[in-house]
Write a structure and sequence with these properties.
With 151 residues, the protein is of the alpha+beta class. It has three helices and eight strands; from the N terminus they run H-H-E-E-E-E-H-E-E-E-E. Helix 1 packs across helix 3. It is globular and about 45 Å long. The chain starts with a helix and ends in a 13-residue tail after the last strand.
């Protein structure tokens, strides 16, 4: 898939699903080898106001969305997918007032399953706040993924 097609697919993907649109996710860069998304900081993501630590649920939304888009980027043509398994390892707290970034890569595609790994950071990619490994079901019925972007 070329970069222009990926940008179009990312725009549709990130606007089609309401919670992704609400979170303000945006594509930083992408290719068939992987995608990087940004989730801007919002005060409502804070789960521990005393320490200023973000809720892990916000991080999970970013990871699941990034991994799904990585699968779409890795397939020759976008297809319907569904998250089967998403394992999260939280390595350190994500702190308030900083955006979150996620890099996801689909490292193996079978005829029915896509395997993806991801890393989340704030200031320094080499200091991840979380890592993830996931599996996505690929459409066995050959259903193309072709939503219309929502505004």
């Amino acid at each position: 898939m070329n970069t222009q097609n990926l940008e179009t697919i990312a725009a549709a993907f990130l606007s089609y699903i309401p919670h992704m649109r609400e979170c303000g996710l945006s594509l930083v860069r992408g290719s068939p080898e992987g995608v990087e998304l940004r989730m801007p900081f919002r005060e409502e993501w804070v789960g521990d106001p005393i320490r200023g630590v973000l809720h892990t649920g916000a991080i999970t939304v970013l990871v699941d969305s990034s991994c799904g888009l990585a699968v779409l980027a890795a397939t020759p043509t976008p297809e319907t997918i569904a998250t089967l398994d998403l394992r999260m390892d939280y390595l350190r707290p994500a702190m308030r007032d900083k955006d979150l970034y996620c890099r996801a890569e689909c490292f193996r595609l079978t005829s029915h399953i896509a395997f993806v790994r991801a890393s989340v950071w704030q200031d320094d990619r080499e200091q991840p706040v979380a890592i993830s490994q996931s599996a996505f079901m690929r459409s066995s019925a050959g259903k193309p993924w072709n939503p219309e972007p929502r505004s």
